[in-house]
Amino acid sequence: MQVLVQKGGQEDVAVGRGSTSTVKGFRNVIQGHRLQKEWIDIHSPLVQTQLGIKCVLVGDGAVGKTSLVVSYTTNGYPDEYQPTALDTFSVQVLVDGAPVRIQLWDTAGQEDFDCLRSLCYPDTDVFLVCFSVVNPSSFQNITEKWIPEIRTHNPRAPVLLVGTQADLRDDVNVLISLDRYHVKPVPRPQAEGLADKIRAEAYLECSALTQKNLKEVFDMAIVSGVEHKARQEKKMTAKGIKTLSKCRWKKFFCFV
Q1: Residue 165 lies in a domain
Q2: Which of 56, 80, 164, 254 has its CA 20 to 30 A from that of 203?
Q3: Which cofactor does it need (predicted)?
């Protein structure tokens, strides 16, 4: 597998490398798909003719959702934490040579934004459900809050479970701080088990700071979103043909 990434005219070739986290079916899903990322003018008429994928990031506040998006889209990293209300980012990628526009919706995890956040869920093609690997309470909220919330508004879109801040898993200062509260980082096997429980497409761990596995997260999201969009359009087409067929039969019987 070979994935091409283009930024500012400079092309870096990243030969497919195995993720250190468990990614169920990642190689099988991505294999055969050639992805390339570019920057686009969202006001360009060309944008309107491209396949659009809506990807929504959800999870507790301060787990690093904004950092993931900023690091992926700009190669930068936020200097300080600023709570998000709702931000959107638009990036163009090429999947098998075809242009695909991915819209990244960065949502707020605080309860004050519950109503605003739920407005983002309809028509979503893929969810990135995020927790911090060094914040066990954010992991617990995956099943207590986030999965029930998104499934209430969108029961079919694929979900990727993402463990953020993976660079802190072995950080001595973080481990000392957690030990004061008698807690430890979320074990990988436990996160993998949760991914199976919620029927996630995969579980991936990444770091926005070091960008380790960051590209793999969004590659998986893009492919999952494209495949979901294709399935939905196929269902709509089949439904339309069935409806048209019924209408023709009704018209036939009216004239007989």
Answers
A1: yes
A2: 80
A3: Mg(2+)
